[in-house]
Amino acid sequence: MKLPQDFIDKYTHLLGDEAPDFFESLDQDSVIGFRLNPLKNDYRNIKYSLNKTIDYTNDGFIGKVSGRSLEHQTGYVYSQDLSAMYVAIVADAKPGEKVLDLCAAPGGKSTQLAESMQNQGVLVSNEINYKRAKILAENMERIGAKNVVVTNESPDRLVSVFKHYFDKIVVDAPCSGEGMFRKDHAATKYWHKEYPNECAKLQKEILVQAMQMLKSGGELIYSTCTFAPEENEEIVSWLLENYDLTLEPIKRYDGMEPGRPAWGNGDPTISHTVRLMSHKFQGEGQFLAKFKDNTTENKFKVKKKKAKKSKGISPSEFELWNEFIKPFKSELSNLNINDLKLNGDYLYYYPQELPDIEKLKYMRPGLALGIFKKNRFEPSYALALSLNEVSDERVIKVTKEQWKQYVAGDVIPSNESKKNGWYLLETEGKYFAFGKLVNGTIKNFMPKGLRFTAIDESEYQ
Ligand SMILES: C[S@@+](CC[C@H](N)C(=O)[O-])C[C@H]1O[C@@H](n2cnc3c(N)ncnc32)[C@H](O)[C@@H]1O
Question: Which of 217, 272, 360, 373 has its CA 20 to 30 A from that of 100?
Fold first, then answer.
């Protein structure tokens, strides 16, 4: 790969003897990984090999998964770089917490945060770019998360709703992307000598907003996929100088290096941060820092948040929803009317305790359950992917070939003896969509934009 001369000069100076190994590592092939999703039923039941484990994860593996496999479509697997996997592990989001992922698309870290929260608490996954936010929302639906709001906002506008609200905030910042050079050679074209400084300016702007949303005593997780000290140790130094924050030590596994105090303001605690350098570590370049806020509750006058409003769900709509969901006997079969929110004709399951987000742009204000059409309720694809245990009476098992037909957009002929109506479709133990059985045919409700041609069985690696 042809690296910019200024980049070579910079890292020759910074890394000294290590520089040749570092440059060589950027020419090597990337090691590819994936994660399993513990939110899913029997989540280890997949066809991909789980032999190559990663020591700092429970559910991360080395290997390549196809976006056209059953496992991917049903959200059992998520393809992710090995280094990127460490960010959400360090964040350690817990069930019941209020967590913000401020720069979240396409969703590698957010899906992992949602998984570790086990559908309890609130995760706000935000992405400023609309197209990317759409992909983020699709990924959140695929993994079946029930407690996630996907917003499409600038950080400053989020502050107006979420002032000092979050226990944890992840800022996986837009950066100069030097750590991605190996995976994406084209990234070198955007790089110029001043680029890291330009990115650092934006990172500070984002962090100023993030700090206004962090609770007293909360934790801020900052990460980049670049090697540049300007965006890493220097940003950490700036945060320590301008806020009442302490760096928490991050556990280092084989090949992980401490951040370098000398590349920041010399504060020795900068060694609590972690650098993943491509000549020492299998994944792509990454930097991680975890801060604890030291302020006390009284410092901020946190306004009492407005209670959420349940927007105009009529008793008859609530009845239609219940008529649909009760026979499934699922974990969503007994929702309270206050858990539900109507947006136009769409019904959402809205995380408890969330302030009113109506003035924000959002992609999904919770889990999309379905849509009211005249006098009936039509379930969403997202609802199908979020259900885990349902009554056998409401399930139709189909073959893998029939699954392939369905995801390609075809109807499935069926000799099923069950009566006409909505069923959750299952293959190889995985629920993959709703289908409507009408006189021996299962009608297709796969969203048009998500249809695809599935891989052949021989393509599993
Ligand atoms: C490193 S990527 C995030 C990757 C993501 N966390 C993941 O794990 O999939 C950084 C994101 O920041 C977004 N971004 C760019 N400018 C921003 C800004 N001014 N404020 C907030 N986010 C911004 C980009 O659109 C991009 O999606």
Answer: 272
Counting atoms of ligand 1 from 1, which one is nearest the CA of 206? Answer: 20
The answer to whether the beta carbons of residues 418 and 410 sit under 8 Å apart is no
Roughly what angle, to the nearest 10 degrees, separates helices 195-213 and 233-242? 40
Are the C-beta atoms of residues 339 and 318 closer than 8 Å to each other?
no
| 175 given a catalytic annotation | no
Question: What is the pLDDT, as a whole number, of residue 371?
Answer: 97
Q: Does the CB atom of residue 138 touch ligand 1 within 6 A?
A: no
303 pLDDT exceeds 70?
no
pLDDT band at residue 311 using 50, 70 and 90 as cut-offs: low
Q: Is 20 annotated as a binding residue?
A: no
CA of 132 to the centre of ligand 1 (A): 9
Domain ranges across the chain: 5-293, 307-352+367-388, 391-456
The pLDDT value given to residue 210: 98
ipTM reported for the complex, 2 dp? 0.99
**DSSP letter string over 278-296?**
TTTSSS--EEEEEEEE---
CA-87 nearest atom, ligand 1: 8
Nearest to 101 by CA among 160, 167, 42: 167
CA distance 211 to 214: 5
- Can you name the residues that pair with 151 across neighbouring β-strands? 126, 362
CATH of domain 5-293: 3.40.50.150
pLDDT digits (tens, 9 = 90+) for 261-282: 999 999 999 999 999 999 999 9
User: Residue 351: pLDDT above 80?
Assistant: no
Give distance in angstroms: CA of 219 to centre of ligand 1: 19
Architecture of domain 391-456: Roll (2.30)
Q: Is 108 annotated as a binding residue?
A: yes
Contact residues for 231 (Cβ-Cβ < 8 A; gap 6+) = 173, 175, 176, 196, 199, 200, 203, 224, 287
CA 406 to CA 435: how far, in whole Å? 9
Amino acid identity for residue 438 in this structure: V
Q: What is the mean pLDDT of the chain?
A: 94
The radius of gyration of the chain's CA atoms, rounded to the nearest angstrom, is: 23
Q: Annotation-wise, does 109 bind a ligand?
A: yes
